[in-house]
Amino acid sequence: MDRPSWDQYFMDITRLVATRSTCLRRQVGAVLVKGRNILATGYNGVPSGVTHCDAGGCLRARLNVPSGERHELCRGLHAEQNAIIQAARNGINIDGSTLYCTTMPCIICTKMIINAGIGKVVFAEGYADELAREMIAEASIAVVHFTNDHGGETP
């Protein structure tokens, strides 16, 4: 029997979570894990009760905002933000947890990750945000670029 590693298992779940995304530009999923237990999940999209971008249109596309810039010019939240918010709404302590994410977090999410006490980030795809990489390293948060079912590699 060929069982997936824990990292593969959680990354597979993270990719499934991303399929719930309502973003027209990029589907991202995030899963917070502690002690091999899932604490919360999140995907990128608009706040609850707000018109989804597929009906209202993409503000970033309309304004020609390049990927990785001007995050505030978006109606949606990032997957990492939604996972942290869901944990907070449900009273779940995420201090010392691991964040699995389909994409390396941006600078805004990185600052939230640092202050939330998340101890490790495992991501599948890179993201063009040098400041995020610098700050997460300065905060001594372990970062692993997951490459396949044999584990990851530290970037």
Description:
The chain is an alpha/beta fold. Helix content is 33%, strand content 23%. It has helices at residues 6-18, 53-56, 59-62, 79-89, 107-116, 130-138; strands spanning 29-34, 37-43, 98-103, 120-125, 142-148, 151-153. The chain has a 6-stranded mixed beta sheet. Helix 6 links the parallel strand 4 and strand 5. It is globular, with a radius of gyration of 15 Å. The protein starts with 5 loop residues before the first helix and ends with a strand.
- What is the overall number of helices? 6
Strand content: 15-25%
Order of helices and strands: HEEHHHEHEHEE
First CA to last CA: what distance? 31 Å
Rg, alpha carbons: 15 Å
Helix content: 25-40%
Q: Runs with pLDDT <50, length 5+?
A: none
- Overall strand count: 6
Class by helix and strand content? alpha/beta
Shape assignment: globular
Give me the side-by-side strand order of the main sheet: 2-1-3-4-5-6
Average of pLDDT: 91
Q: Profile the largest sheet.
A: 6 strands, mixed
What keywords describe this structure?
globular; 33% helix; single chain; six-stranded mixed sheet; 155 residues
